[in-house]
């Protein structure tokens, strides 16, 4: 087999890519239709409530409207199980108080209407952000096909998760930084609902001198915190901090399931490493991501390429990331697909695009973590593309 089969992937031409996208879209649609068609009274064949994780958000909304403390674990479990008692326990709620204004309105609706509204609204925001990136970088396939074919989209829908909302905020913010920094900062400030994915944002904004975006992001985050405090009381912060240790313990002990997590930390644990080794590897990966960003962005003007690298690195830099969070990779994938073709680029795109559908079942069945590798390859190829593009620009005659 020629080395070019993988290095340049000449077989992965535009016609085949479009065909693969149609196949993936059909498979994702069939999965969702089958899940709904085989469910009984809203419960799927495996005994899970349709929307699985959404029960936590909806329960939180009902508790908030009833004046209850969402961070009272016993009360939260009781409230969840009053509606649906899962065979594997309950879905924990560790989100910060800044997320509470987003979930409170959900409690005014029944579970399934709330789930439908949640997916429609957050999914619509996500599609708007993806459309913005397509308009910026161009794409060889229509939005509807790209969205339906991308495996993390189906995963997010079936889990009723927050990933569409978070990806819309991060992707939209990354796209707006150069031309609308205040709007970008607002997006980033709202994205503090899941703070572990925003670790790289202040670094990149500082490196590229985006002071207006920095101020806007800080002001928005403070305003969102103030709204949460006024709406739900100052004690809500102490209650959240009190259960934060449980979240760290749940991650370290595998309560979430290392096979469900896509980080370097989880990969080491899957391979039999101890917690100290897992944290050490995760720290090394995070530092490598930061160092690469510094090398690429220091004293450079912000552009969508830096934004794409930042979003690709966001997944690598945190120990707690799951397969549905991979919807964020749509933006760096779109940027990379629009760049001049280079060695390893096509296969890196294919690997990162397809890996989320196999990552969890493969890790659960064999303890082999493929998603951290796919994310690292994508990040490295994007960094190389940015540096190569700049090298060509610097070498060009003036």
Please supply descriptive tags for the structure shown above:
single chain, 398 residues, mainly alpha, 67% helix
Description:
- There is one protein chain.
- By secondary structure, the protein is mostly helical.
- The chain is 67% helix and 0% strand.
- It is built from 19 helices and no strands.
- Helix 16 crosses helix 17.
- The longest helix has 27 residues.
- The mean pLDDT is 93.
Over all CA atoms, what is the radius of gyration?
A: 21 Å
Strand content: under 5%
Q: Fraction of residues in helices?
A: 55-70%
Order of helices and strands: HHHHHHHHHHHHHHHHHHH
- Helix/strand class: mainly alpha
Q: Biggest β-sheet: count, sense, barrel? A: none
Rounded mean pLDDT is 93
The rounded distance between the terminal residues' Cα atoms is 43 Å
Shape: globular
Beta strand count? 0
Supply the number of helical segments. Answer: 19
Low-confidence stretches: none
SSE topology sketch:
Blueprint: H1 4-7, H2 14-37, H3 54-65, H4 73-83, H5 100-103, H6 111-137, H7 143-149, H8 151-159, H9 163-176, H10 181-190, H11 201-207, H12 211-232, H13 235-253, H14 264-270, H15 275-297, H16 304-316, H17 330-337, H18 345-366, H19 371-395
Helix pairs in contact: 2-7, 2-8, 6-9, 6-17, 9-10, 9-16, 10-12, 14-15, 15-16, 15-19, 16-17, 16-19, 17-18, 18-19
